[in-house]
Amino acid sequence: MGLDIVKFFNRWGRGTAVDRVTDFVSRMLYLAVFWTLTTIAVFFFAENGKTIAITMTVAASLHFAITEGIFKRLLWKYFNKIRPYIAYPDRIFPIGRMHSDSSFPSSHMSANLAPLSVIVFYYPVIWPIAAVWTLLIAYARLHNGMHYLSDVIAGAILGIAYGALAIYLVNFFNQYVLS
Fold it and tell me: Taking a C-beta distance cutoff of 8 angstroms, is the pair 128, 80 a contact?
């Protein structure tokens, strides 16, 4: 069933501008620039911006330490899941950069939802934009043949957990250490 879902999304819009959009929003450089500029903008222009920007940075750091460091480097033997386009080269057409590390969990989902969940916590009114962004990234990872639905869901859960943990840690630090 997981393969059928990837096949469906991989074919939906293939050969159109959809490929260019999903390739673009999946580029690490684009995402790094996007989240860096967003964090800087929040820092300077949002009410309580310093705290929110620090919390976003902590959430992103948790992602890199846990998802990239622990899951994908230390425990890769246990979480090594072959990407769909590699496992089924005759059925899945890769789009964009062809990552060859483990597909589980989706780092793109985790990296995006960690800071995004912080922003939504402080500004819940933007949840519809956050939902559209999240669905776009999820679709892109499936469409590009890089992940199974379970990888995307696991990455989303981890990203939200990193955001929640960062909110807790920064609030705890502000309340008990700085006071």
Answer: no
User: Which domain, by its residues, includes 56?
Assistant: 2-177
User: Using CA atoms, how far apart are residues 12 and 92, in angstroms rounded to an integer?
Assistant: 12
Amino acid at 58: V
Q: What is the DSSP string of 88-117?
A: -TTT----SS---S--SS-HHHHHHHHHHH
Assign 179 a pLDDT band (cuts: 50, 70, 90): low
For the chain, how many structural domains are there in total?
1
At 14, the pLDDT band (50, 70, 90 cuts) reads: confident
Helix axes 107-122, 149-172, angle to 10 degrees: 40
Indicate which CATH number applies to the domain containing 67. Answer: 1.20.144.10
pTM, two decimals, is 0.92
